[in-house]
Amino acid sequence: MGEREGTESSDPLDLTEAEERRAARLHRESPFVDGLVAGTYYLSDPDYNDRLSEAGVLAGNLTVGGPSFDFEGTVGDVAAVRRAVREHDEMYHLVETVDDIAAAATTERTGIILGFQGANWMGNDLDRVRSMYELGVRIVDPTYNRGNTLGDGCCERRDAGLTALGQEMVSLCNELGIVLDTAHCNDSTTGDVIERSDDPVIQSHIGCRAIANAQGRAKTDAQLGAVAAGGGVNCITPFPPVIKRDPETHRVLQATIHDVLDHIDHAVEVGGAESVAFGSDMSDRTLDAGSIHQGSNLATWRTTHPEVYGAGSTERMDPYPVGLSRLTEIENLARGLVARGYDDDAIEGILGGNLLRVFEDVWSETADTWSDIEYK
Predict the structure, then answer these.
(1) Residues 57, 109: contact at Cβ < 8 Å?
(2) Distance separating alpha carbons of residues 107 and 221, to the nearest angstrom
(3) Paired residues of 140 in beta bridges
(4) Where would you tag: which of 41, 154, 355, 362 has the fewest CB atoms within 10 A of its CB?
């Protein structure tokens, strides 16, 4: 499934007419599930609240919070997102079960899955996890960049894994039916979560470290393989620092969709096509603005942790890969997978079927499974 030879066409993929028809059909007929939607403004900003539907997103893991240690404030953030979904229910549908994704599909809305990048808000109180579940949260990454009471994040200087409390939290998420995500965990915590969890684990927006050496944020072959062995899913992201960088200086390099496809190919080679999906991690508004606020990830962490976030500007987002730089270019993902020679079943799985399988496994109280539902 190697990269096809380039042509003089401005289209980085340059498919044949037959391939274009096949890709268009797969994009139209396959359920597309985004492993990581970055930006709650997609729900309410009139300039951007049609982007998810334009991209054909059936359901997406929307980050509602995580880095904050303020539990009450975080609950308020979750409530605000629930309110925004309700106020725009002609476009969005809150997802707590696979049935809710089916409801979104049949009513031509986008399913919003509430997820956390980091669980600093938990502190030492496991009951807070139960409260978040009751509020509809269905995906949780135990750590973000820093360490917390559960374990260490990708920027922590220590190499510690899950704490005793973190182990209890993993078991509680299994009990409740919350999908565990290790995208921002450091190596030790990533391994501990995968080993401790009885349920499949996802990595919602990652790269492959064999291609781009982004510590923590690009995962090793052992981690990719362990997730796959447990029935979980590795979601490849076009986030530039984990896709293409200078191996010595860590400077982030301009990528194309072919670089993203290289990561997908590698993850498939390690764990099989059934273990791979896609997590966009795109903030269209930030990319369009051409600047980032000084409290952002890149501005805060890049200068001190280039091994994680790469070297480059701290005033603007790195350009996303050519051909896959905005949500509205998501159709190119299906085109790229066709160009790489994947069969229909593999493409349908990578676009969303593999994540839906994990949701079926973990959200166990749903009445139906996705395979029982006719998707159009």
Answers:
(1) no
(2) 40
(3) 116, 180
(4) 41
Is this prediction's pTM over 0.85? yes
All domains of the chain in start order, with CATH: 30-363 (3.20.20.140)
- Strand, coil or helix: what is 35? strand
CB-CB contact of 277 with 234 (8 Å):
yes
Can you tell me the distance from the alpha carbon of 107 to that of 168, in angstroms, rounded to the nearest whole number? 39
> What type of residue sits at position 328?
T
Give the position of tokens 């076009």.
Answer: 238
Q: What is the DSSP string of 156-212?
A: -SS-----HHHHHHHHHHHHHT-EEE-TTB-HHHHHHHHHH-SS-EEEEEEEETTTS
Q: In the numeric block, which tokens belong to residue 350?
A: 């990578």
The model's pLDDT over 292-324, given as tens digits with 9 standing for 90+, comes to 877 777 888 999 999 999 999 998 889 999 999
Angle 221-229/257-271 helices, nearest 10 degrees? Answer: 60
